[in-house]
Amino acid sequence: MKWLIVEDSLRDQTGHWFEYINIFLQGLKSLGDDVTLLVDKQAEQFVKRQLGAHAILPPSIFHEMKVEKSIFKRYLSIPIHNWLTFRCLAAWLKSHSVPEIIFVPTVQVHHLIAWSCLVKVMLRQTQARVILYFVGAPIHFHASSNMTVWDSSPTSYLFRCLIRSMKFEIEMGQVILATETPIMSLSLSGLTGLPFRYFPQPVASLSEKVQQVEIDIDDDIVFGFYGGARNAKGEEVLTAAIEKYKRCFSDSKINFVLNCVGGTEKAWLPLKEMPRVSLILDYVDSEQYADYLRSTHAILLPYRTSSYALRGSRVAVEAMTNGIPIVTVRGTTIETQAQEYGAVVLCEDGDIDSLVDAIRKMEIQ
Question: Which of helix, strand or coil describes residue 101?
Answer without folding.
Answer: strand
